[in-house]
Write a structure and sequence with these properties.
The complex is a heterodimer.
Chain A (H helix, E strand, L loop, with lengths): L4 E6 L2 E6 L1 E3 L4 H13 L4 E5 L3 E4 L1 H16 L3 E5 L3 H9 L2 H4 L3
Parallel strand pairs in A: 2-4, 3-5, 4-6
Antiparallel strand pairs in A: 1-2
Helix pairs in contact in A: 1-2
Chain B lengths: L3 E7 L5 H16 L17 H21 L6 E7 L6 E8 L27 H8 L2 E5 L4 E8 L4
Antiparallel strand pairs in B: 1-2, 2-3, 3-5, 4-5
């Protein structure tokens, strides 16, 4: 089974791909990676949720933490690819417009 | 059609994927939706709006039981998934023997979302409530969550 997420860095850009289920079990693992991403103060972060099948409120919280952290440090962040259940959750919470999904 | 599925399992995060998988399969029985990719685990292969709603609500209730009722300590969760004779509805009872949940602790979501107001917690009950037709809580012991959702008639 592939890891739940992968991070690649190029110059000042970071790409985060999240797959499978981002939930109360996996969000703490991603949160630790998010701390590392934010510590590097990237200018641009791209988050690809295309391979993400499921998300719960813990997963949403992790992505909100990343979104806020990047922007408060002066960087920009783009979240894309949400579909099916994750997209339904972002719409329900009205975050689809904030994240421009 | 089967009339009910009953599960009794530890109320820990380790058993959460199993519980979600069973609920996803039960939702598929009612919605009539098909798996798209049999290579991936059943709880991940959720696409139909009915299945999506049921699974989303259930995940939040299970999380709530593990985190708030049992405070991540060992405990037992009983899950009863009922299929009323009309075959167009799913009723899920989740019973725990932990600390009762206080609905007064649920805060409203911010009316306007921006960088400052985007919530990082307190979303679970809003997701669960919005995703099903009815969500009721009966504090115990034992504590009982009952959610029901009617499927769109095809």
């Amino acid at each position: 089974m592939p890891p739940a997420f992968e991070v690649t860095r190029n110059d000042n850009q970071t790409m985060l791909v999240v797959r499978g289920s981002l939930d109360i079990n996996t969000a703490p693992i991603l949160a630790a990676e998010i701390d590392r991403i934010l510590a590097a103060k990237p200018g641009r972060v791209n988050v690809d949720l295309t391979p993400l099948d499921l998300i719960d409120s813990s997963g949403v919280a992790a992505l909100v933490k990343l979104y806020k952290g990047v922007r408060s440090a002066g960087g920009s962040i783009a979240i894309s690819g949400a579909r099916d259940q994750p997209l339904a959750i972002f719409k329900l919470l009205r975050m689809d417009k904030v994240f421009d999904l | 059609m089967v009339s009910a599925i009953r599960l009794s399992l530890p109320g820990t995060l380790e058993y959460r994927p199993l519980a979600v998988r069973v609920v996803a399969e039960a939702a598929r029985i009612v919605s009539g939706s098909a798996r798209r990719d049999p290579r991936i685990s059943g709880e991940h292969d959720v696409h139909d709006p009915f299945d999506t709603a049921v699974v989303s609500a259930f995940m939040e209730i299970f999380n709530n039981v593990v985190v708030h009722a049992y405070e991540r300590a060992p405990g037992t969760v009983e899950i009863e998934i009922s299929f009323p004779p009309t075959h167009d509805e799913l009723v899920i009872d989740v019973t725990d023997h932990g600390t009762p949940f206080d609905p007064r602790n649920v805060r409203p979501l911010p009316r306007e979302l921006d960088d400052d107001s985007l919530p990082e917690s307190g979303m679970g009950m809003h997701i669960a409530t919005a995703m099903v037709d009815e969500l009721a809580y009966h504090p115990g012991p034992p504590n009982l969550w009952r959610m029901s959702k009617r499927a769109w008639r095809r």
